[in-house]
Amino acid sequence: MRSQKLAERVVIIGSGPAGWAAAIYCARANLQPLVLEGAITEENRQAGTLPLGQLALTTEVENYPGFPAGNLESYLDHAIVKERRQYMVEHSKHGVSGPELMELMRQQAVNFGTRIVTDDVVKVDFSKRPFKLTSLSGKLTEAEAVIVATGARANYLGLPSEDAYKNRGVSACAVCDGALPRFRNKPLVVVGGGDSAVEEASYLSKFASRVFMVHRRDELRASKIMAGRARSNPKIEILWNSQLDEVLGNDREGVTGVKLGSTTGKSGSQHDASGVFLAIGHTPNTTFLDGQLELTDKQYIQWTTPQRTYTSVEGVFAAGDVADDYYRQAITAAGSGCMAALDAERWLAAQGIE
Ligand code: NAP
Fold it and tell me: How far is the CA of 22 from the centre of ligand 1 (A)?
């Protein structure tokens, strides 16, 4: 039976592909989901954690199945309400853009009866059901089941010049942005020395004339096989003991180069580049959980059962990048959002809540 105070059946925290996919499935299962999509605050803008998630910070999305290149304008005019449509910037039509994809998913969730609150969850109490969620505005929401889909944010170095050229040559996702025309046949820079950096550099080498990997030590953190891949790729040059001091550019062209410093006291260098890709790790958005869910040593939510979205608390499910530091793609996040909705629906049914 539902609690007397009429707690929500299921609350979804987060509004990236995992959150909306979960909402669509929960709504179609008549669970009347409530999505806490995040707050629109300056703090969230600076941290890259505004509603609609990381995809809303990217440009074209060419690898989300179902959205080949084409003119989506008239479809978007019909699918998205006018008030939100007017804020969507034009793009170069290589596919759907990140913000468009997120607005379409959000609208699809709304169409099936999802309710949305534009607020952050700042505190949770998962000690007993109904679970309690406190939002930034101070509102308390109770829920029988919760799906956490708050994603992860890419780490940046925090340089002012890096911030100035975000989306104009500075990116933290080669798979998202690397194939854009501005990067083709041009030298590019990847910062980092882990598996992600090698993966990004290898991916970018398909399009770029040359890829400089800027790494702060004289040894890669990447696994042997990945490190070997970087070393044997004729287009990749590793700049050892180096750090990115400044992204160079101008208003018209965006990024035009980088200024590098030495981590061993040697002299720095300058390189032409039309793009700078940060691959220095991600930070999952799990701080608000305050230790109430089991996390991995990298602070991602620990899925406790293979092929399920269960967490260490029964009735709390996790989906998308907040629990996945490996695939981190829109399509995999959406897939796990669907899984979390099905897991939550079945779990609620087993509790007699339908
Ligand atoms: P990671 O392994 O933590 O590597 C981060 C890299 O960024 C390190 O080389 C680190 O340098 C560098 N870095 C961190 N902070 C920095 C800073 N402030 N300034 C300059 N450099 C900085 O992260 P990841 O590469 O994203 O990988 C995350 C996980 O996903 C790993 O477990 C990885 O194996 C896995 N993954 C696997 C694959 C694959 O197998 N195909 C692909 C991608 C990711 P230091 O080395 O000096 O610490």
Answer: 29
